[in-house]
Amino acid sequence: MALGPRLDLRQSQSLVMTPQLQQAIKLLALSNLEIEAFVAGELEKNPLLEPGSPADATPVPDGIDRAEERPTLAAETGASDELIAQGLGAADNPLDVDHGTTTFIDDGPADRMAGSGGGMDMLGASGGYAEEAPDFDSFAAPDVGLHEHLMDQARAALSGMDLIIAAHLIGQIDEAGYLDANLLQAAHALGVPLFDVERVLAVIHGFEPTGVGARTLSECLALQAKDADRYDPCMARLLANLDLLAKGALPQLRRICGVDEEDMADMIAELRGYDPKPGLRFSGDRAAPVIPDLFVRKTREGWGIEINGATLPRLLVNRSYYVELASGPQDRNSKAWLADCLASANWLVKALDQRQKTIIKVAGEIVKQQEAFFREGVAHLKPMTLKAVADAIGMHESTVSRVTSNKYLSCPRGLYELKYFFSSGVSSATGDGAVSAEAVKSHIKALIGAEDPQAILSDDTLVDMLRARGMDIARRTVAKYREALGIGSSIQRRRQKALKGRAA
Q: Are residues 212 and 205 in contact, defined by beta-carbon separation less than 8 angstroms?
């Protein structure tokens, strides 16, 4: 059999992820704030993109475009070459998506209230600030950090080698105010006697905030007790046995300290007034507030859902600049680059619009399936899966997962992550459906919160009470949910409430 070259035609199918599709998937998983950062990068790379403003597309309350009929221009349907030929490069609509003509895609409720010119304002009765407006300066980070604050005091109290030792020790104090250093190693590193290091540390212990520079919790509380003139031998023995206090072993502590029940209650109440982490009041690290991506509000027709337009950037394609560049002299490479910029700009505007529509669609189905939660509260939250939402709206499960990642929903009941509405189910005792795990946690928290200090509820008792409410749940599941809520066992709660009762 002779061997020779030949050509064959074969047909096959394969899934190809284009760069545009990969980027669209990436955009879908980003929050509004992350989209804002992404768009800022695209604005730097693409000269045909420019940031829009609310005035560029005035939203209509009911989402219906009532613009008068006008002849269709080639700028609205033609290619870029036809734009240049007809001199319509400066037309307003051809390459942009009109966000205002899509229902619920406009500015947020706060912007609507500001633009309405009437009605009640969240900050005051007449649209301005109320008489006791919030002091926004109080939310700002402190001007001076803990280390700077301590060094200012050290410069005023010490000098020479003592100041160098103090600077070395202050540099090893963590943000909570505790010294994380070995004094003997510090003395060897500085070439000074250990006595000098201990003497300087005693000076630091007198700095503000009281308790700073301590090496243990007991030492921190002891410094504050000395400052309050409450450090006596009984308090010293109590601070030396904080582990027994944590366990609630009050009879043993009374014997160690040599005090009666009333004095022990006074000492515990004194300790509760101390700050176990004095350095945190100078910490500049504050938790960033969560910005909602969606607003859900009750309307006469049902539930209204809208994108938070305050954090969502608006993009426009600068067609005038495109016409100006395309009309000038250019070679093949520059022409190809300009065409790529135009295609990328058009695609990004459309991708952002499609992203909003997808988010609205998924959020609408979540609100529809969890309507009882929005009406009655977390106790009525139903078990729901990604697949159930995906099947209802005709999308893939992975798409719903991306849409619900890193996104938050604001409703009259509070701020919730979209993932919060997806939870497993617990079988119902009556057999008429499952109950959400979050709803079960809510019931457990409510039952424990209302328990009598003299009759602490055990896990077995909680199981019986939950079954009486129609939730068929095992004891180990109750224990798991209780621990997830950060609630101790019945023994731990009995000790904690006994301590509170005696301290009161």
A: yes
Within 8 A by CB and 6+ apart from 314, the residues are 51, 52, 53, 54, 56, 57, 99
**DSSP track, 399-438:** HHHHHTTT-EEEETTEEEEGGGG-B-EEEBTTSS-EEEHH
298-344 pLDDT, tens digit each:
888 888 888 888 877 788 888 888 888 888 887 888 888 888 888 88
Rounded Cα distance, 102 and 312, in Å: 15
* pLDDT tens column, 14-25: 767 777 778 788
Count Cβ atoms below 10 Å from residue 35 Cβ, excluding itself.
Answer: 18
State the pTM of this model: 0.55
State the Cα–Cα distance between residues 220 and 242, nearest whole angstrom. Answer: 12
What span, in angstroms and rounded, lies between the C-alpha atoms of 132 and 116?
Answer: 24
Place of tokens 């499609």: 354
Residue 177 Ramachandran class (φ > 0 left, ψ -120 to 50 alpha, else beta) = left
